Automatic annotation (TrEMBL):
InterPro entries: ClpP/crotonase-like_dom_sf, ECH/Chromodomain_protein, Enoyl-CoA_hydra/iso, Enoyl-CoA_hydra_C. This is Enoyl-CoA hydratase-related protein. The lineage of its organism: Bacteria, Bacillati, Actinomycetota, Actinomycetes, Pseudonocardiales. Transmembrane segments: none annotated. It holds the Pfam family ECH_1. Coiled coil: none annotated. Belongs to the enoyl-CoA hydratase/isomerase family.
Amino acid sequence: MPEDDEILVEHRDAVLLLTFNRPDRLNAWTPSMRRRYFDLLEEADADPSVRAVVVTGAGRGFCAGTDLSALGDTPEPDVDERAISLSIRIRKPIIAAINGPVAGIGLVAALFADVRFAAEDAKFTTAFSRRGLVAEHGISWLLPKLVGAGAALDLMLSARTLPGTEAHRMGLVDRVLPASEVLAAALEYAHVLATECSPASLADIKEQIYSGLDSGLETARADASNRMVTAFGRPDVREGVRSFHERRRPDFPPLGG
């Protein structure tokens, strides 16, 4: 399959929809798919017309992890220096619409999205320990922050499979819905962010949250104070207040380079 076909791209107004498109393999991950995904995220970050990104899978799965059929008897690690955690450095919000099975690197990609919608019957597994691998791609940093150290160890050590409903109870995902409703709900949420929220505010808040995971309260407070001064110098604050008083949808400027 040509690389451009492995991930479908659709612009829905200010929302960019990316669809992993290897449905016959449950959208299993390939090196070319990885490169394409990173390129598309970086392009979205630089494109002022894109204000939010939704990621989903074609067919009945989200991403079943690395395509083992593409590996030889002596597999080698992927040497692309861009990590899955690139998504937290993208300034636009990224929403994962987990429509079905998700495993391994597919799970990492979903967890590094900013907000996650999942099907009730989607199957989740870390998979790594059952393939002779380790906690890859930064998941050892992120997973304990989402579910706690004990639950993270359980999921990583056992690589057990859990349904979307349990994933929601644990904190792996933020919304759980019938499979038929997942993509529509994620797109609706992204549309609200794209049309009613300041792109500059979204970028600042996203950076604050992720940098705050490893900083103390005083560092976060001082950073917020500095950002607040900058925010009041932007037109977004004036437009936010004006649109509130005029009872209309705000018209925020696009995010700069």
